[in-house]
Design goal:
Blueprint: E1 7-8, H1 13-18, E2 23-24, E3 28-33, H2 39-52, H3 66-73, H4 86-93, E4 101-106, H5 119-123, E5 126-135, E6 138-148, E7 158-163, E8 166-171, E9 178-179
Parallel strand pairs: 3-4, 3-5
Antiparallel strand pairs: 1-2, 5-6, 5-9, 6-7, 7-8
Length: about 180
């Protein structure tokens, strides 16, 4: 008999559906893709929704100053002024265990693997690949769950749209297009 693992909702309804109810709690998930594909927005939306539900979370970036990150995210409806208090709650929760982790890695469009150094994908329980697809002159953001231990999931490609209410996903219709 399969044991059903407790889930951590991402707050992105379509992604939670793709993952059959969310990320298995305690998993380490690599969010990877080229520049401008939505990695930071997805990670912060996950943290904000988690904080609203009393979850523990931490975002560490070695490439973007926290002040700049907050300025860029304040435009989203999911990042309300009340949620700014989540930063204080997160620091208190750091000493507790059981945190579901998103690692973020930037890739060059021509990269062959899923991470810059290869070690990130090796230690990850899950890989969510974000990309850009050129189709009929438009550049579409895409998402595909490559792997996620502890749950069945869709491996289809989805169009990712970043809106003022957060990330929206819809299935990518089959047809012409080239990954860039």
């Amino acid at each position: 008999m399969d044991k059903v693992r407790e889930r951590c909702l991402t707050g992105i309804e379509a992604l939670d559906n793709i993952l059959n109810g969310g990320v298995p709690k305690g998993n380490t998930v690599l969010i990877t893709g080229s520049a401008g594909t939505g990695k930071t927005t997805m990670s912060i939306e996950f943290l904000v929704h988690g904080a609203m539900e009393g979850e523990k979370g931490l975002y560490i970036s070695v490439t973007e100053a926290s002040e700049k990150l907050l300025e860029n995210l304040i435009v989203y409806d999911f990042f309300s002024k009340e949620i700014m208090e989540f930063i204080l709650r997160l620091s208190k929760a750091l000493s507790e265990l059981g945190c579901t982790t998103f690692l973020v890695s930037e890739l060059l469009p021509s990269a062959k693997g899923y991470s810059q150094y290869g070690v990130e994908e090796a230690v990850s329980d899950g890989i969510i690949l974000l990309g850009n697809l050129e189709r009929k002159g438009d550049l579409l953001r895409t998402l595909r769950v490559v792997k996620m231990r502890g749950t069945s999931h869709s491996r289809a490609t989805y169009v990712l749209d970043i809106t003022s209410i957060g990330i929206l996903l819809v299935p990518l219709l089959k047809g012409g297009g080239e990954m860039v």
